[in-house]
Design goal:
By secondary structure, the chain is α+β, with helices and mostly antiparallel strands. It folds into two domains: 4-140, Lipocalin; 177-316, Protein Transport Mog1p, Chain A. Helices cover 15% and strands 39% of the residues. It is built from five helices and 16 strands. The protein has helices at residues 4-12, 190-194, 208-211, 237-248, 299-316, and strands at residues 29-40, 45-48, 51-56, 60-67, 70-82, 85-91, 104-110, 113-119, 130-140, 177-179, 198-205, 217-224, 252-257, 260-266, 272-280, 283-291. It has an eight-stranded antiparallel β-barrel. A seven-stranded antiparallel sheet has the order 10-11-12-16-15-14-13, with helices on both faces. The longest helix has 18 residues, at 299-316. It is elongated.
Amino acid sequence: MWKPSAFGSLLFAVGLSAHAAGVDEALLGCWRSQQVQVTLADQSHNDQNGDCVSEYDAEFVRSRCSGASGQTETLSAWQRVGQDTLRVTLLDPSTRAAKGAPSELRYRIEDRWLMIERQFPAGAAGAKQPRVLKSVSVRVRPDAGGSTANCTPRGESKLRVGRAPASSLALSLPAGWEPVLIDPYTDERLRPAVNTSLFIGAFAPVGASVSQSKPARMVLVLDDVRYGATPVQAKDFGAVKQRFVAEMGAAKLTCDEPDKVCALLTEASGKQAYTELLNVNGRVAIITSTIVGAKGDMLKVLRDAAQTFVARLRRDNAN
């Protein structure tokens, strides 16, 4: 697994040109990392993300990441050398001497999102050598006074444990709920449900997660990476909904809105699961509310629980 501190180096430790094409004003400011996808030589890919921000001024980019070992910062110089091409040099923060050999990045800005692509040389042998890195970041707006003081990583989450990659989506804890602090990579219940998604958290009603080993009710909140390192915008969400309906199979569709789709699935074992997919800051958030051992139609209970987290996600990510 990649360390969060590596994201700054991978994205920005690349090179400087003597022939600049001028500063792209749209690039200046703060960007929060949302997804990094690395394609390997065998065409498989890894989807990751770190709790990282990058702040561009006219000369430098500062990449700050928060991880298990604390916060790190890398400093790079950058120049635009083509319509969609950057060259950036990783610098020693004390001497500002270059620390890396030059290499180019392709970039594009689409509405509030910055997308970067880096090609790796094909010289290294091995099926698992990286060949292409793609990333997407969302712009962090300055505060009311125009300051970029909010250009910081979110920091350690109290809602999850383990070393799973971090989602860019903020989430505060709703009243009446508490986090189920188990590592999704080691827990046999959560691992298949989380799969490759970015794990935001699992939650149970207050008292349930400590009074019983397997909460009868749980809400799981995920950030879906299957759409790649690109923003999912309103025009794209129709395809997301079609995929969701196809994947849910026998589930009962309960809502179909421009930026949200919902379904209820009842298993033969009696377990009921209600899921909402919604578009938040270009990400596809998955909120699944489950209940085990209940009798009768529990749609309202499940939906109310899911919508508590939907409302909190929308509020906390009103960028």
